[in-house]
Amino acid sequence: MAAYISRAAPRALNTAFRPIARSTFHHANPQRAATPMFRRFLATPAEEQPRLRLGSTAPNFKAKTTQGDIDFHEFIGDSWAILFSHPADFTPVCTTELGAFAKLKGEFEKRGVKMIGLSANDLNSHDRWISDINEISNTNLQFPIIADADRKIAYLYDMVDQQDLTNIDEKGIAFTIRAVYIIDPQKKIRLTMLYPASTGRNTAEVLRVIDSLQTGDKKGVTTPINWNVGEDVIVPPPVSTEDAKKKFGHVREVKPYLRFTNVGK
């Protein structure tokens, strides 16, 4: 792969990167969506970076996947969803990750969560790679993987590491990082995790934070460090101890601002 951009690269990049069509990608800022892709990663002015803050609406898009064409918001429907990206097919860390996620399909389904992957290759490559994943991990991968060979969705979701903006492939396109977006049924981004390409993710942590988010939404509580389902939760500061006791029963007060209770599983 190229480690630098040659003098001839701008011409190639100008050809390779087209403005994102409004009909395909829906974004709150039309000017940002129309910015040529090569400028997005060569200049990367701050005002052109996506604003994917927690609580903001996950940008919608249409894409081809290993299970057919999708509209992302329609795919999510009334469920929770995890969108997670991978640098490339047939790479070692990505292969171990997808195998591990595939094995946890039942755990995600119990929580009402849909999984969808993204890798910067075409569908033909994805199909061949899935065979390897199933063989190596002894599993049956059933969630869709988005084909994002031109990195349009990767740039829409800012799945690119600044240090890799010059670590480009033969097309002159920056590689994607390992991003995780947890999105709720209202299409709001509730949690993000960003990993460098060199570091594999932790599936148990992804499940843990989903449990925390869903418990918080249902019970009106927050969760302490290293919390897992069934352990004590925290009463939020705006709730008085008296009201907390009425709602939860027993409340253990460590400090006036730190009170624990238990909401079960």
UniProtKB/TrEMBL annotation:
The active site is at residue 94. Belongs to the peroxiredoxin family. Prx6 subfamily. GO terms for molecular function: thioredoxin peroxidase activity. It comes from the Eukaryota. The keyword Oxidoreductase applies. InterPro entries: AhpC/TSA, Peroxiredoxin_AhpC-typ, Peroxiredoxin_C, PRX_1cys, Thioredoxin-like_sf, Thioredoxin_domain. Keywords: Antioxidant, Oxidoreductase, Peroxidase, Redox-active center. Transmembrane segments: none annotated. GO terms for cellular component: cytosol; mitochondrion. It comes from Rhizodiscina lignyota. The keyword Oxidoreductase applies. Residues 52-215 form the Thioredoxin domain. Pfam families: 1-cysPrx_C, AhpC-TSA. Thiol-specific peroxidase that catalyzes the reduction of hydrogen peroxide and organic hydroperoxides to water and alcohols, respectively. NCBIfam families: PRK13189.1 (NF009668). This is Mitochondrial peroxiredoxin-like protein Prx1.
